[in-house]
């Protein structure tokens, strides 16, 4: 596991974008696992800039996103499909048909999860999986649990995730369930890149990367990955003993 501490969010974002860009430069037909949330916005801005400067092209890149809220349509402003279009896909030369996000409006949960696992299987190994981290240690929407789920599944969001994310929704609209890629699929990526910033992530960063590996802190599994890169700003990393 490689741990990088940066002074600022901007520096974290730049480093993360460089690592992702290098994967595209190594293989222009690579598959990237992508994440949503406030943390990767700066990373995506840097990637857009690199595209505009003709340093990288997404023309032959495929992307697979980690998760999606159940019940939200692709054009709902808080859906992760909307987020990805708005923060990355609409600004680069990626082919939309090569961008995979779970369908929040799927009628049959099992079928949707199976469909997504087939997509993951058809593109494995992903060159890189980008991850944020929840204050409770979740990656994707793999919430603290008694085991590490392998494949794509439907999750009931934990009270802590609901509390953190409710700011984006009107009370009655907050989704209670989400689909997420499983921990097994995340672990199969050649490289996993987790980014975190701000003091609210400090405790979970210590528990995840200097605590024991346990499904009660889902991100802790990354300690077992052959090429895990953890980049945090100094606020997020302040409790780690480095
Ligand atoms: P955040 O979310 O980037 O908005 O902090 C991360 C996550 O919940 O995985």
Please describe the topology of this protein.
Layout: E1 2-6, H1 9-26, E2 31-34, H2 41-52, E3 62-65, E4 67-69, H3 80-87, E5 99-100, H4 109-122, E6 128-131, E7 153-156, H5 159-165, E8 177-180, H6 183-187, E9 191-196, H7 202-210, E10 228-233
Parallel strand pairs: 1-10, 2-3, 2-6, 3-5, 6-9, 9-10
Antiparallel strand pairs: 4-8, 7-8
Helix pairs in contact: 1-2
Bound molecules: 2-phosphoglycolic acid.
So how many helices? 7
Count the E strands: 10
Bound small molecules, by name, code or SMILES, are: 2-phosphoglycolic acid
Overall radius of gyration: 17 Å
What structural keywords apply?
242 residues, alpha/beta, seven-stranded parallel β-sheet, 7 helices, globular, binds 2-phosphoglycolic acid
Walk me through the structure.
This protein has 242 residues and is an alpha/beta fold. Helices cover 30% and strands 17% of the residues. The protein has 7 helices and 10 strands. The chain has helices spanning 9-26, 41-52, 80-87, 109-122, 159-165, 183-187, 202-210; strands spanning 2-6, 31-34, 62-65, 67-69, 99-100, 128-131, 153-156, 177-180, 191-196, 228-233. The chain has a 7-stranded parallel β-sheet, with helices on both faces. Helix 1 packs across helix 2 (41-52). The radius of gyration is 17 Å and the shape is globular. The two termini are 13 Å apart. The mean pLDDT is 97. It binds 2-phosphoglycolic acid. The site of 2-phosphoglycolic acid has 7 residues, from loops.
């Amino acid at each position: 596991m490689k741990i990088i501490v940066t002074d600022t969010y901007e520096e974290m974002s730049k480093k993360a974008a460089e690592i992702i860009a290098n994967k595209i430069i190594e293989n222009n037909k690579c598959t990237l696992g992508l994440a949503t949330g406030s943390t990767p916005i700066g990373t995506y801005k840097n990637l857009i800039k690199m595209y505009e400067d003709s340093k990288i092209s997404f023309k032959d890149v495929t992307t697979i996103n980690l998760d999606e809220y159940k019940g939200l349509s692709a054009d709902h402003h808080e859906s992760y499909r909307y987020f990805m279009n708005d923060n990355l896909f609409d600004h680069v030369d990626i082919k939309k048909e090569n961008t995979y996000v779970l369908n929040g409006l799927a009628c049959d949960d099992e079928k949707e999860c199976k469909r997504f696992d087939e997509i993951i299987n058809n593109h494995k190994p992903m060159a890189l999986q980008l991850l944020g981290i929840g204050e409770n240690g979740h990656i994707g929407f793999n919430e603290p649990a008694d085991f590490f789920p392998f494949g794509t599944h439907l999750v009931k969001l934990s009270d802590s995730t609901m509390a953190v994310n409710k700011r984006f929704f009107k009370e009655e609209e907050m989704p209670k369930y989400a689909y997420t890629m499983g921990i097994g699929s995340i672990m199969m990526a050649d490289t996993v890149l987790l980014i975190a910033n701000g003091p609210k992530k400090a405790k979970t960063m210590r528990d995840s990367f200097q605590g024991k590996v346990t499904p009660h802190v889902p991100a802790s599994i990354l300690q077992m990955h052959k090429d895990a890169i953890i980049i945090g700003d100094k606020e997020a990393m302040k409790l780690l003993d480095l």
